[in-house]
């Protein structure tokens, strides 16, 4: 071998060695190409926007159904109080740190095995709820629609189980179970995302903030929570990488190179979708309550969420470090609608709006409470 050939071989080996060392010292994966990153982050943005958009509009019907049910039964709807909103970041911090400690003490494989089974059941139910209406429309007329009512009542008259379903719902359950088994066996990223999107849509639809002030308290507290656990500690990043459950949406950055077998993922936590999403859904219901034929507060906040998410991705790309998405999403999602309301003269109306206004206690209610108190004494 000539001296020139030996020099070329030596330089090539050095380059390979340097690349290998860089990979081992970093993520353990070959760095993504610009095209791969663009596809991955673009897909994450789309998957974040869709649940908020559709979940917000679904929340209008869910709110109306809940209100109708409360009027029939006389029960008060469940509300997140301002105290609940203030306590939520503290409770979430305790839960997050508890999971972190568990991962440090016990084997990650056994913990994820338990979590997989738990989220398998939740994911199947969430996906069934999401697709049941659409499956019912697509089924041929040869599939009969038979209604069932499962009810279990105590002797005292209290209903323990009161569940209505149909044969079409059973078909939806079967489809969801197949996807669940796919996730259970393969842990494929597509199955993970299907469940993650189902959780997100259901969360935005069903988790109701009753008023804007409660939403401001909740988002403000989680703003501090996210910054602390990402920047001050390694807790958030460690749990996100160790937690093998559909609590995040992922997309491979090496899809072009490896296809569906890709394994170098960009990720976004469901909390960064659902938490701002329930506030945006509240603003949509506020728009509907104004009866102006427009949804200006929903759309400006939705656009602000998109801008905040793009800012998160840009900062993360520039500094090559995990970013607390709520650091950028919360100011965007709170500041934009409040500024718009201030300009349009709706700020007082916005803060007075409540999904379920608390009815003033009547004289009969006070008398009944006094009677109950005497009986207790």
TrEMBL record:
Record-annotated membrane-spanning stretches: 38-57, 85-103, 110-131, 165-185, 212-232, 265-284, 296-319, 325-343
Pfam families in the cross-refs: Peptidase_A22B (PF04258)
Subcellular location, principal: endoplasmic reticulum
UniProt keyword Membrane, yes or no: yes
Bias kind Basic and acidic residues: ranges: 363-377
Cell location: Endoplasmic reticulum membrane
Coiled coil, from the record: none
Keywords: Endoplasmic reticulum, Hydrolase, Membrane, Transmembrane, Transmembrane helix
GO CC list: cytoplasmic side of endoplasmic reticulum membrane; lumenal side of endoplasmic reticulum membrane
Membrane topology summary: Multi-pass membrane protein
InterPro entries per record: Peptidase_A22B_SPP, Preselin/SPP
PANTHER family cross-referenced by the UniProt entry: MINOR HISTOCOMPATIBILITY ANTIGEN H13, SIGNAL PEPTIDE PEPTIDASE
Descriptive protein name: Minor histocompatibility antigen H13
Source organism: Amphibalanus amphitrite
Gene: Hm13
């Amino acid at each position: 071998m000539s001296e020139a050939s030996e020099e070329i071989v030596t330089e090539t080996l050095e380059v390979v060695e340097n690349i290998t060392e860089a990979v081992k010292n970093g993520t353990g994966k070959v760095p993504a190409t610009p095209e791969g990153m663009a596809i991955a982050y673009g897909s994450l943005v789309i998957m974040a926007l869709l649940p908020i958009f559709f979940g917000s509009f679904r929340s209008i019907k869910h709110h109306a159904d809940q209100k109708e049910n409360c009027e029939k039964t006389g029960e008060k709807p469940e509300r997140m109080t301002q105290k609940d909103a203030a306590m939520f970041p503290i409770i979430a911090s305790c839960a997050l740190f508890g999971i972190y400690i568990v991962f440090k003490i016990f084997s990650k494989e056994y913990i994820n095995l338990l979590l997989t089974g738990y989220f398998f059941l939740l994911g199947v139910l969430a996906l069934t709820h999401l697709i049941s209406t659409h499956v019912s429309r697509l089924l041929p007329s040869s599939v009969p629609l038979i209604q069932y009512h499962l009810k279990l009542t105590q002797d005292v008259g209290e209903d323990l189980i009161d569940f209505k379903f149909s044969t079409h719902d059973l078909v939806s359950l079967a489809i969801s179970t197949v996807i669940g088994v796919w996730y259970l066996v393969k842990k494929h990223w597509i199955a993970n995302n299907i469940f993650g999107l189902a959780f997100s849509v259901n969360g935005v639809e069903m988790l109701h903030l009753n008023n804007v002030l409660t939403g401001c308290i909740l988002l403000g507290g989680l703003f501090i929570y996210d910054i602390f656990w990402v920047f001050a500690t390694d807790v958030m990043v460690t749990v996100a990488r160790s937690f093998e459950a559909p609590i995040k949406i992922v997309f491979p950055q090496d899809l072009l190179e490896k296809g569906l077998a890709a394994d170098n993922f960009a990720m976004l936590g469901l909390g960064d979708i659902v938490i701002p999403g329930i506030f945006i859904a509240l603003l949509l219901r506020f728009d509907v309550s104004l009866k102006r034929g427009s949804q200006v507060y929903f759309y400006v906040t939705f656009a602000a969420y998109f801008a905040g998410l793009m800012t998160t991705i840009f900062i993360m790309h520039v500094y090559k470090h995990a970013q607390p998405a709520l650091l950028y999403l919360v100011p965007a999602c709170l500041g934009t609608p409040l500024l718009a309301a201030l300009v349009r003269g709706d700020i007082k109306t916005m803060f007075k709006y409540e999904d379920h206004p608390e009815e003033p206690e009547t004289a009969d209610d006070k008398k009944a409470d006094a009677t109950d108190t005497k009986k207790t004494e």
